[in-house]
Design goal:
Blueprint (H helix, E strand, L loop, with lengths): L3 E6 L4 E5 L2 E5 L3 H13 L7 E5 L2 E5 L4 E2 L11 H15 L13 H17 L5 H11 L9 E3 L8 E4 L2 E5 L6 E3 L1 H9 L6 H8 L5 H21 L10 H6 L3
Antiparallel strand pairs: 1-2, 2-3, 3-5, 4-5, 6-8, 7-10, 8-9
Helix pairs in contact: 2-6, 3-4, 3-7, 4-7, 5-7
Pfam families: APH
Protein name: Aminoglycoside phosphotransferase
Length: 247
């Protein structure tokens, strides 16, 4: 009998693996609706939806292995990273999905960032100079952008490869009309050494300062949430190290 593996679990949702089946438990049915529709529309490899019975969505595992993990060296080849960049470009070139993204507008995002920076310093979570420097770097990401079909949570563990080919992209619950460079930044967070490979595969010029801005912005916004939900943003190579790399 297959064992039950807890892939991720916190107060908002949980994902379990039983053999070659992933069970996503999410009381927010809007997220599940987005995930199912996005996988049906996007022109890149995605998991097969096996069945759905709220609040559970069952999907098949995709072949291959994750491109890597945050905080660990990636064993994937430069060609695999480039293939990931090419797959992301295919997604971004697809027709826009008929729903907006779930992200915040620029004014709201800037206000949230400023508030989070104040809390990080006031509560002694991070040194003031580290927060101030990264708030400056993050400013580059706070600019108008042309929406694309965006994944919205394109973490390195959400892209699967076999050799030098992308076999599947998973976890589409945040998909929508979004910023292309946010996707590229999320994919390369903590793996700056592979940014050039991803950009080469993406096949067009990108503003690297904006990508670095998103690294700082995203890290500043999630550190408290991660700590409160059982994750360690201070682990080697993770969010706090990402912030330190900008000093």
């Amino acid at each position: 009998m297959d064992e039950v593996e807890v892939v991720v679990a916190h107060s908002e949702r949980a994902t379990l693996r039983v053999g070659d089946v992933f069970l996503k438990v999410d009381p927010d049915q809007a997220r599940i609706d987005v995930e199912v529709e996005a996988m049906a529309l996007v022109p890149v490899p995605t998991p097969e939806v096996l069945w759905r019975k709220p609040p559970v969505l069952a999907i098949a595992a995709v072949p291959g292995t994750a491109l890597g993990r945050l905080g660990e060296p990636s064993t994937a080849s430069p060609a695999a990273w480039a293939a990931a960049g090419a797959a992301v470009r295919t997604m971004h070139d697809a027709p826009l999905p008929p729903w907006p993204g779930r992200g915040r507008g620029l004014d709201e995002l800037a206000a949230d960032l400023d508030g989070e920076c104040e809390r990080l310093v006031a509560n002694g979570v991070l040194p003031a100079d580290l927060v101030t420097r990264n708030r400056q770097v993050a400013e580059a990401a706070l600019r108008p952008w042309t929406p694309v079909f965006a994944h919205g949570d394109l973490q390195i563990t959400h892209v699967f490869v076999d050799g030098d080919e992308v076999t599947g992209i998973i976890d589409w619950s945040e998909a929508g009309q979004g910023d292309a460079l946010f996707d590229l930044a999320t994919l390369t967070l903590g793996h700056e050494e592979h940014l050039a490979d991803v950009v080469a595969g993406y096949g067009t010029d990108v503003d690297l300062d904006v990508i670095r801005g998103w690294w700082s912005l995203r890290s500043l916004l999630v550190i408290r949430w991660l700590a409160e939900h059982g994750f360690d943003p201070t682990a080697p190579g993770c969010e706090v190290d990402v912030l330190r790399s900008r000093m």
